Amino acid sequence: MASLDALLRRMLERGGSDLHLTVGLPPKARISGSLAAIEDGTVSAGQMENWLQEICPPRRWKDFLERKDLDLAHEIPGVARFRANFLYNHWGQAAVFRQIPSKILSFDDLKLPETLKKFCHLTEGLVVVTGPTGSGKSTTLAAMIDFINTHYARHIVTIEDPIEFVHSNKRSVIVHREVGEHTASFADALKGAMRHDPDIVLLGELRDLETMQLALSCASMGMLVFGTLHTNNAPKTIDRIINAFPAEEQNQVRTMLAGCLAGVVAQLLCKRQPKGRVAVHEILLPHEALPNTIRTGQIASIRQLIEGSGAEGMVTMDHSLMARVKDGTVAPEEAYMKCTNKALFAPLLTGNGAPAAAH
Predict the structure, then answer these.
(1) Residues sharing a CB contact under 8 Å with residue 351, sequence separation 6 or more, in sequence order
(2) Which CATH number fits domain 4-100: 2.60.40.10, 3.30.450.90, 3.30.300.30, 3.30.70.360?
(3) Which of 28, 261, 272, 279 stands 20 to 30 A from 134 (CA)?
(4) Other beta carbons less than 10 A from residue 124's beta carbon
(5) Domain-by-domain residue ranges, the chain?
(6) Predicted confidence (pLDDT) per residue in 173-197, tens digit
């Protein structure tokens, strides 16, 4: 069977984004949203171990055997970088490799909403970029950091597991730290970052309670903190942060979050017509009514706040999906699957599941 790098190259040639390796199955790649085999023959346990051990430093390999899970980066020089996740499943060792574009894509390249630039001009607060795994959160954050790097002289510390996008210093000074390689945990790195005089901290993931506590503290102390969560809209993101804390601390957390939340960007990837994928967004910006809404726990009314603030650049996910259906980028069925208010999109579907004309 082909070498690991040969499989990764083949996936890229076919326009794939992720390589999935499991013992007993052929190597598969995600191409335009669907999994397809890219090699005949199935992967053996011995082949899998050879592939994984070949690209893994001995110390990290020992960690993987003990913990049964490992994140690391792999690079084919001159071709691409990949974020690798090693895991164990029912059949033994397995892995997923996601391509990290070697070129950091700009706002224009990604066709991101201009509104997101408002977050790049901030000097303090917590900005959370959310969405399911594989929705492009890291790519969007990289574009935002690149915009800041191009326009402002800031000290930026990124804490990731593993490091994905490597930024070269333009006007800003950027320090990349990798969990497991340069620091023991997100929390340890964040405690260290507080002493490094950063203007901006990028957290690859708000992974646990301690990391969330420290992120809120940094944002309250006057730093601009970017972090990611796996939620799919703004109200759920705020709920997730508050509910991560013990009940007796939640009132205090609401007060802290009300004081420092600078915005939420929720992102979903949809199948684009006729091929490829397109990102759609829900955007919550700072608003005079937002702190009180969070402080009093009226999270459900954030939806109305976003809907009523379109002129400022806020937008709900359903509104973004409807705009993509109307311009023909996304099929009505795809939007129906991803939307919150099914009744809004049901009239666009015909009885047999074929799309009706969008008006």
Answers:
(1) none
(2) 3.30.450.90
(3) 261
(4) 16
(5) 4-100, 107-315
(6) 999 999 888 998 889 998 988 888 9
Bond preceding residue 332 cis, omega within 30 of 0: no
Q: How many residues does the chain have?
A: 359
C-alpha span between 175 and 158 (Å, rounded): 6
- Predicted local confidence at residue 352, as pLDDT: 46
Q: What's at 209, amino acid-wise? A: L
Residue 97 is predicted with a pLDDT of 97
Q: What are the distances in angstroms from CA 158 to CA 209, 222, 288, 334?
A: 19, 17, 30, 34
CA dihedral 127, 128, 134, 136 (to 10 degrees): -20
Rounded to the nearest integer, the mean pLDDT of the chain is 93
Confidence band of 351 (pLDDT split at 50, 70, 90): low
Compute the average pLDDT of residues 152-164. 94
Task: Name the token pair of 265.
Answer: 């960007």
pLDDT at 359 over 80: no
Which one-letter amino acid corresponds to residue 130? Answer: T
Q: Domain 107-315, what fold?
A: Rossmann fold (3.40.50)
First and final C-alpha spacing in the chain: 51
Contacts of 94 (CB under 8 A, 6+ apart): 20, 21, 22, 23, 48, 86, 87, 88
**Lookup result for tokens 């699957």:** 337
* pLDDT tens, position by position, 55-109: 999 999 999 999 999 999 999 988 889 999 999 999 999 999 999 877 899 999 9
- Quote the CA–CA distance of 215 and 194 in Å, as a whole number: 10
Please name the residue that has the structure tokens 């999109």.
345
Helices 250-260 and 209-220 pack at an angle, to 10 degrees, of 40
Listing DSSP states for 121-159 in one string gives: T--SEEEEEE-STTSSHHHHHHHHHHHHHHH---EEEEE
- pLDDT bucket at 33, cuts 50 / 70 / 90: confident
